[in-house]
Amino acid sequence: MVNTLQAGPQAKTASMRRSRKIIFSAIAVALTIVVSGFMLWPATPQDLALDNQMQQSGLYEHWRAGQVIVLVRHSERCDRSANPCLGPADGITQLGSVTASELGQAFRTLGMEHTDVLSSPMTRTLQTTQSMFNQAPRTQEWLVTCGKNLERDIKAHKLQGRNLILVTHSGCISDLESHLGFAHALASEYTSSLFVTLTADGEMQVVGIMNARNWPQVLKEMPNNL
Q1: What is the largest CA-CA distance in the chain?
Q2: Which of 3, 66, 135, 206 pairs with 43 at a CA distance of 20 to 30 A?
Q3: For residues 1-33, b (16+ Cβ closer than 10 Å) or e, as one string?
Q4: Is 163 in contact with 68 (CB distance < 8 Å)?
């Protein structure tokens, strides 16, 4: 005959063990889902300012060959900053103009001989482009809206053997990153640059990002033979 006084505690202990196993199994499944999510959702493209990635990625060679597309976000917006405005309220700040000028000098150091520049027609992008290159830019309406046709529009304006700089908006940069496999990338900073190459079979490939503040150090590391 089973001792009911002993069976009760034993059953309760067994039940607790089963509950712990279920909880631990649920936690393991949840962790697996989280880890898998990080693997399936690439983060922000690599920072080209780190570990000499400008050279390691082959970007300098691609630039010389005219195979690079760069999306530049406009400088600091006047209507979202306490810094003095350069001009109209829908434009950039004076600080943003200085940053854009320094960015333009960085691109001139890379070499602009085989490079075309297009800009969104918005005031903030026009002012950014003018500060970068000291000339009125060619404008394109599609650099305002971007969206699902962005990759097609870029390819339509990319000439063989010539790099293409596009001064645009954070939303457009996010659109292209999403199209190219970085749907969960961080939002781009003011005057940052997304570098993309066009492969021989016509496919776009993200190389990485460069934030404006990192250019001085990167240019110091730039090979002398470029």
Answers
A1: 99
A2: 66
A3: eeeeeeeeeeeeeeeeeeeeeeeeeeeeeeeee
A4: yes
Q: What is the DSSP string of 26-53?
A: HHHHHHHHHHHHHHHS--SPPBTTSTTH
Number of Cβ within 10 Å of residue 132's Cβ equals 27
- Tell whether pTM > 0.90: no
In 3D, which of 65, 55, 119 has the Cα closest to residue 92? Answer: 119
CATH node for 53-220: 3.40.50.1240
Domain locations in the chain?
1-40, 53-220
Q: Tally the C-alpha atoms within 13 A of residue 221's C-alpha that lie toward its C-beta.
A: 15
Cβ neighbours of 218 (radius 10 Å): 18
Q: Which two tokens stand for residue 8?
A: 């009760």
Residue 155 to residue 197: CA distance in whole angstroms: 11
